Amino acid sequence: xxxxxxxxxxxxxxxxGRIRLGDTPWSVQLGRGSQGRTALExxxxxxxxDVVVPTPLVSGTxxxxxxxxxxxxxxxxxxxxxxxxxRCVPPEVTFYRRRLRGTVRRKGELFLFGDQFWLGAVEGRxxxxxxxxxxxxxxxxxx
Length: 143
Prior knowledge:
This protein is mainly beta and about 140 residues long. It is built from one helix and twelve strands.
């Protein structure tokens, strides 16, 4: 499933129409926020999950993460955020979930979207995500 995402072109220049992320329940769309700023709209199964507008008042690169069922047996976890100012490389994103025998870690497949946003994707239901910034700082979010 993640392989099908890797082979798709996600960066788009138009702002109309959602782009479905492979055979997952997730889709994204670029829109316009206040003052004409580009916004990232995220949808799970057709419902709005988040709208992210880069602003100097909000710091941090990791803006959100959630999981959604693909079908009755499979889950898909997505993290998203804003690229660091002046950088066109997404952070290193790691997804975590606890098991009886320890913690499972998985690196997410990363994609740039538009000029300012990144998406990190992994198959499965994960409960925490971290994003490593270029300054060595780590941001984390519980899902």
